[in-house]
Amino acid sequence: xxxxxxxxxxxxxxxxxxxxxxxxxxxxxxxxxxxxxxxxxxxxxxxxxxxxxxxxxxxxxxxxxxxxxxxxxxxxxxxxxxxxxxxxxxxxxxxxxxxxxxxxxxxxxxxxxxxxxxxxxxxxxxxxxxxxxxxxxxxxxxxxxxxxxxxxxxxxxxxxxxxxxxxxxxxxxxxxxxxxxxxxxxxxxxxxxxxxxxxxxxxxxxxxxxxxxxxxxxxxxxxxxxxxxxxxxxxxxxxxxxxxxxxxxxxxxxxxxxxxxxxxxxxxxxxxxxxxxxxxxxxxxxxxxxxx
Length: 292
Fold this sequence. Notes:
Blueprint: E1 11-15, H1 21-30, E2 34-38, H2 41-50, E3 55-62, E4 66-67, H3 69-77, E5 80-89, E6 93-96, E7 107-110, H4 112-117, H5 119-122, E8 128-131, H6 135-145, E9 150-154, H7 156-161, E10 165-169, E11 178-186, E12 203-210, H8 217-226, E13 232-239, E14 247-253, H9 260-272, E15 275-283
Parallel strand pairs: 1-2, 1-3, 7-8, 7-9
Antiparallel strand pairs: 3-4, 3-11, 5-11, 6-9, 6-10, 12-14, 12-15, 13-14
């Protein structure tokens, strides 16, 4: 069982029911620790902020559907840092109450991301696709309601745990589909998040920044990294929510913020940006087929 130095066993929050892919991510990162599922991403942030959980595990990006935008927005809203990441394979199935057949299904429930990851299969029939807060939660809802003519898109593990019958397996559009999860923790007095002993690869730094809406300002921001040899493995924008048609840029750097070149790049960025927030430096996740 992983522990934080000087603390008791770790308690980890995740979004969803037991059997959710987020729970798989908790186990992959921490082992068989105490873990609690919450109904939604915001509730995970709130639990970590309140101190009722040492860390929270949240999906940040899927190989097929891309960024989980709500998580990016919540990272800006809450004062938490990113301490690690983990990549989890995502294999989806369609499951329903025992005795149901594919021909009986009229409604399919799941998280929006999962529905999108199985779009090719789901669009092959005239089902009503309905979103829920979580994949395993969709299965739980069907069980609790005893809802027939309904099915859920979820993991086989969750389906079997809920005693649902698998009607179709491996329905994801991409065979090696996977999701990257980040692990968030509260910041200490020095402004850095707690440290967890989670194995990984070379360092990654995640930050967000804004620039004036003027010609050349984004170029100047990116030049801060290019001139110091810092690679940006990811860059995308999100609405700032503070002003119409203003944006926040999110970047993943292939470097540690403590490295002199990276520290100098961030300092140069601060000279041209209107806002810079560094969420943390942490080891990049190993892919599921890589040995640690």
